[in-house]
What we know:
Chain A is of the alpha/beta class and 262 residues long. Chain A is built from eight helices and six strands, in the order H-H-E-H-E-E-H-E-H-H-E-H-E-H. Chain A folds into two domains: 2-54, no CATH class; 58-259, Rossmann fold (3-Layer(aba) Sandwich).
Amino acid sequence: MDMENLETRVKIQIQKWIVEAQELIQRTPPSQLYAAVAVVGFTILLLILIKLFKRTSSNTIVLTGLSGGGKTILFYQLRDGSSHLGTVTSMEPNEGTFVLHTETTKKGKIKPVHIVDVPGHSRLRAKLDEFLPQAAGVVFVVDAVEFLPNCRAASEYLYEVLTSASVVKKNTPVLILCNKVDKVTAHTKEFIRKQLEKEIDKLRASRTVVSEADVTNEFTLGTPGEAFAFSQCHNKVSIGEASGLTGEITQLEEFIRNLVKA
Amino acid sequence: MLEQLLIFTRGGLILWTCREIGNALRGSPIDTLIRSCLLEERSGAASYSYDAPGAAYTLKWTFHNELGLVFVAVYQRILHLLYVDELLEMVKDEFSKIYEPKRMVYNDFDDMFQQLKKEAEDLAEKMKKSKQPVKAVNANLGKKQGLGQKGGVDGGNKKKSGDDGNGDEEGNKTKNYGYENGHSNGEHVVNGEVTAVVGANGKENRSSNSGAFDKDKLKKLRGGKNGGKKTNTTAVVSKGPKEEPKKKPRVWNDSAPETKLDFTDPVSENGADDVPDVAMDQGESMMDREEIFSSDSESEEEELGKDAKVETKKTGWFSSMFNSIAGKASLDKADLEPALKALKDRLMTKNVAEEIAEKLCESVAASLEGKKLASFTRISSTVQAAMEEALVRILTPRRSIDIMRDVHAAKDQGKPYVVVFVGVNGVGKSTNLAKVAYWLLQHNVSVMMAACDTFRSGAVEQLRTHARRLQIPIFEKGYEKDPAIVAKEAIQEASRNGSDVVLVDTAGRMQDNEPLMRALSKLIYVNTPDLVLFVGEALVGNDAVDQLSKFNQKLADFSPSPNPRLIDGILLTKFDTIDDKVGAALSMVYISGAPVMFVGCGQSYTDLKKLNVKAIVKTLLK
Ligand SMILES: Nc1nc2c(ncn2[C@@H]2O[C@H](COP(=O)(O)OP(=O)(O)OP(=O)(O)O)[C@@H](O)[C@H]2O)c(=O)[nH]1
Ligand SMILES: [Mg+2]
């Protein structure tokens, strides 16, 4: 027996069913038909509602930022309270749904958080688009030590995040997290904020020139005619500090727990 | 001695390192390996060389795809370690027995490792005594790592062990390596060439499977060209059949009725005067139009289905059906072979250069071997999905290609932004230069052209005609002048008159024309342009690799600078004439690591687009 044979038989069978169904519809009184349609419609509506409801209460937090910023370390600090043996450049996202490590000693039932650490390597950026739509919050990790050489690249990436369709449409809060503050050479978060704003301002100028159509996202940032500041964003953009190495991550945890209530 | 052995997850968490060895590695060889080899679809290679101040390491790796683990061994390149491949395999086998996703601490593996290491060392010792060390190891390696497709990998593999950082001598020796390994297929001559060049720099790179001068190597050339320069040229063996320099009479003529932009012929210069001078009203450049790419998922699925059907017919649908329902234990090389072969052929029908299709397939194989096939999936679709991801990764630019931003940045510094257009003859450099000028003009950037093709008669006039139609200034000094000087003067002129951008037209040249390549290298060295744009025809097949790699190689060889400028962007022309044969885009990006910044797709000034990665990937896999 080969495939075609099977196929034709299946086709014949389906056709039979269709004919039977049509007969059935003709035989049943219209009132019953309407009732059936109403029931089906109602179920669909319910499903849509459930889906909408689910989306609003997403518990996903996305960690993003340039490669080497310390996302993976932070991920494991959140999960295990340890940086283990250290990390290397990620080739795949790390994902997990868990109760934060600092909360494991607390009593009562705590809502777990779904945390995704998306690799920063530019070849893997496409992965971010998969996770942004379900994010309740985005953490943009910045390396506060090696900040200046990477300032422009970081700004471009942050710009992409801030103008991505799902972040704009859903007003997803963003935390810019300056990591590695355990090092004395780390820049302050104020300095980093200013530099990022300045750089995004320039980017905005060049992007709006081009943006008549060829840039893929049609959203622009901030108030036209004014120097860009994060406060102009419609979504909440805050800035914090952390050290993934020493486990100093309270500001990150607060951000998460503000969005995903325990 | 082994410097280090690491076990980490694909997510990037280190699970185990050998504490006994405990040497701190210099630089960051592991991160570099991941970033410039494993994530660049070069994981099909057998080893990778890392250089940092005071360190020259060789790295070898193996994947456990089902568990998502990576095993990497690091050792000093001067050491001729024969047991590393075996050791890695043994470590993989043993470690996967005790691995659990939840578990983070594997201190108990220390003892096991010492034992394995001893075993491996003994084995190597024995092999050495039995006088056929190399072959034995390589044979095993091919099997175990499952990537010894053509032996090219092994060929390179060996050579490294001899690479004692002794530049000059090395260059001469390398030629023999392929032979030494018992692989004497013709490809190795080419291999010799490549490695000779690289070896001379005291660096070498593994992934040169079949003579590709690939990007990692270019990076190395960029990184350091200290000493040993002589060998660079002496050991060059030219690659197989080469296409003769052919000056095609404007290929686009046959596809389009009218060549609006063709002003090549100096005679037509008078005629061109009749052309309306102002070309500013041709509408917006296609660069500015959002490409609507309807992802026709329905037809896609259908296609996939069809594909799979073909596949099933071949292998007997019952066993395949059974496999797809039960979920096969784990994929091995033989399972993947037919699907990969089909995929490779498909890529090649899309005009992807053969060696690149080959390497991609190796890399995909390396990422899939040992993986469990999920229930209700077919091997062919699994392979296809993996390839799709790989293609997206390659074609996604590593850096931003926002020229406007760069133009503005240069403007802030009070300097003109300089773009040099380079490429072989007849690919449409001047025409597409004009299109780029048109696009820039539309965004209120002031542009100046520099006619530095002082070689081909008629070139200056052709550019002048474009300049007139676009009403932009052109800097020209006639023929016979040194193009490097003309460009320099043009840039000075642009600074004076406040032009934002200078577009430098250069003579088309074949990649093997040494005097002209030397001149180009000089032009780039003298003028330090902001962007070196390689203009290439979308029509080229296997020659794409040769063109780009030679251009980069010559630019590096002839530059007096220790950090020579190489090609940093690609403009793909005649994209409208190739139908679905979009492979050149992939070949060029893979080989040079430079992104496609523009795509020329027609006869008018507006016919300039950005590369649509999704569309290209879809077409490639169709
Ligand atoms: N001093 C210091 N180093 C840190 C800190 N956090 C991370 N690092 C180091 O930074 C390096 C990169 O950290 P990762 O967590 O792997 O970086 P990542 O953001 O996940 O990078 P990708 O996976 O490539 O995107 C590692 O070597 C860490 O040890 C920190 O708080 N302080
Ligand atoms: Mg990471």
